[in-house]
Amino acid sequence: MSGGIQHKGIITSIEGDVVRVVVAQQSACEGCHAKGVCGEKGKERIIDVETRYADNFNVGERVIVSLVNKSMAFSSVIWGYALPLLILLVTLFSLTKLKVEDGMSAILSIVAVAVYYVGLYIFRNKIKQKIQFTIFKE
Question: Coil, strand, or helix at residue 60?
Fold first, then answer.
């Protein structure tokens, strides 16, 4: 199997070469110190895995979904959390340094992060091509 991050899940649908898998929160989340602020607590995620072997799987089957390599996981964390935080802080401190009122600085910083996330959404298909999953029978 792959050396990347793995999640157990259940296949909910198969459409062509795309296998849709529901992945429940990992047990490792229970012991995590950041579980209260993470946003993943108690959530299920849906992962679409494109594979030419979709015919080998059945709806309801338990599977393991894995990122092809660990650098993809690191890249996802950078794009999803680190860059927005950096944008927020740089915008906030820059506007404060320019003597913009505190409330307005905060609002504009949040708007800058929102614009960033809209950009991620617009380019989601391009990003999706770079993040590849594999699927294995459990």
Answer: coil
Please give the single-letter amino acid code of residue 114.
Answer: A
Cα separations in angstroms, 4 against 21, 74, 97: 17, 11, 43
As a whole number of angstroms, the distance between CA 49 and CA 17 comes to 8
Q: How far is Cα 79 from Cα 121, in angstroms, rounded to an integer?
A: 12
Question: CA-to-CA distance for 76 and 17, rounded, in angstroms?
Answer: 24
At 37, give phi and psi (nearest 5°): -115, -5
pTM for this entry: 0.61
* Residue from 106, 4, 88 nearest 47 by CA: 4
Question: Which structure tokens are listed for 106?
Answer: 């905060």
Per-residue pLDDT of the chain (138 residues; tens, 9 = 90+): 445 578 899 999 999 999 999 987 665 555 555 455 455 555 788 888 888 999 999 999 999 988 776 777 788 889 889 999 999 999 999 999 999 999 999 999 999 999 999 999 999 888 777 777 889 888
